[in-house]
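Tokens in:
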């Protein structure tokens, strides 16, 4: 049963590579950061593997995080839900651009500065826009789960759930962004 479950997880990760146009290496989560004020993990790939600060990390379901520290044999990855991470995204349904920020909760992200009149619906999928050339364009990030409109406020409060399995994934892909010429 353990081997079947592992094979299933690896197949899903392999299927996720079809979405990536960039080169990548696989990595395995080997540790958790005990700091209660950050959501970071340690993976078994480092400078010897070509890993660099600012490198995007994905799992089989969505954007997992961003490399924030590199040692020779390991790296520290800030999860997409970390309060210090912001991701440029667009709404897959209509192309509206925005930014998603972490809330410090593994199950919560928020869209920043979305006008109260914006065309956002519960269930909308948010994908990486590729702006800033940090994250691979078109990779799923989150799904909108709640929209709050406060009278008199110019911006709606939009909450989303990360699509990556932040609390479960052990096998990851570290994406190498191609230089744009």
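Residues out:
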């Amino acid at each position: 049963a353990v081997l079947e479950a592992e094979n299933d997880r690896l197949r899903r990760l392999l299927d996720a590579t079809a979405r990536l146009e960039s080169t990548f290496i696989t990595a395995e989560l080997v540790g958790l950061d005990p700091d209660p004020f950050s959501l970071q993990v340690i993976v078994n790939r480092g400078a010897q593997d070509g890993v660099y600060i600012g490198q995007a990390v994905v799992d089989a379901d969505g954007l997992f995080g961003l490399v924030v520290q590199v040692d020779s044999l390991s790296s520290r990855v800030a999860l997409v839900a970390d309060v210090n991470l912001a991701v440029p995204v667009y709404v897959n349904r209509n192309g509206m651009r925005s930014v998603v920020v972490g809330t410090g909760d593994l199950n919560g992200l928020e869209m920043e500065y979305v006008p109260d009149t914006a065309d956002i619906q519960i269930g909308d999928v948010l994908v990486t826009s590729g702006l800033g050339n940090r994250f691979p364009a078109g990779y799923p990030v989150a799904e909108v789960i709640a929209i709050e409109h406060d009278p008199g406020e110019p911006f709606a409060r939009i909450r989303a759930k990360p699509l990556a399995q932040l609390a479960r994934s052990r096998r990851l892909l570290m994406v190498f962004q191609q230089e744009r010429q």
